[in-house]
């Protein structure tokens, strides 16, 4: 038998080591000593590779839309601002004086007759029909399409187109003065001459100055055939009918217009003589 062992004696037993603790033996492997100090933390191992991403799951169904909330009430309209005062209108400038009116020029010669309108039922030809009635009309194709009307009182064919010749002066005119035609003097051997037979049917006269009496004489080859009386403050006088039938002028006759029997000079006199072509 061996010596008694103390608490630290290790006794081999069946190839195992036992330690005596008090009155019993304890396997050395069962002995737990006091906890030792914590050892140093070991180095962190390398990060492992990231695994493959998993498949994306199916999208979930969209939820039902929520109901729209009720529209709130419209706010009240603010009050309209007051209109500012209207500015005062500036004063109107004074109107300048009216310029004086220049003298009236002579009226130009009559324009050419327009083309005759549609013939309608009016007959035409180079000679007038026999046994016409008053008011009948006929177109002479050998007279440039001139239209005539039969006047039973004088058994005459007269053109329906009333023509005119104008005379005048652009100045103060004394008594016994011939009026000008196209700026030329008119007398027994000067003035407008007719290329065909005509009938003078009337005349008119206009002037500017107030006179007591006077006359506008219409003359044929220097002889007076009728007059237009001029008097008072009337600035226009006319006598459209020289007489009941008119005065005939032959081809080549001269026509004149002059002022006579004036009590004072007149300004810018103008005379107009009216006539119609006469045909047989």
Written overview of the protein:
By secondary structure, this protein is mainly beta. Helices cover 0% and strands 33% of the residues. It has no helices and 18 strands. Strands 4, 5, 6, 7, 8, 11, 14, 15 and 18 form a nine-stranded mixed beta sheet that branches. Strands 10-16-12-13 form a four-stranded antiparallel beta sheet, with no helix packed on it. It starts with 9 loop residues before the first strand and ends with a strand.
Search tags:
280 residues; mainly beta; 9-stranded mixed β-sheet; 4-stranded antiparallel β-sheet; 0% helix
Question: What's the short version?
Answer:
The protein has 280 residues and is mostly beta strands. The protein is built from no helices and 18 strands.
- Which parts are unreliable, with pLDDT below 50 for 5 consecutive residues or more? 1-6
What general form does the structure show?
rod-shaped
Q: Beta-strand percentage?
A: 25-35%
Share of helix among residues? Answer: under 10%
Give the termini distance in whole angstroms.
201 Å
The strand count comes to 18
Biggest β-sheet: count, sense, barrel?
9 strands, mixed
Topology (SSEs and partners):
Elements: E1 10-13, E2 16-21, E3 24-27, E4 123-125, E5 137-140, E6 146-151, E7 156-159, E8 163-168, E9 172-173, E10 177-178, E11 198-206, E12 213-220, E13 223-231, E14 236-239, E15 247-249, E16 255-260, E17 266-267, E18 270-279
Parallel strand pairs: 4-5
Antiparallel strand pairs: 1-2, 2-3, 5-6, 6-7, 7-18, 8-18, 9-17, 10-16, 11-14, 11-15, 11-18, 12-13, 12-16
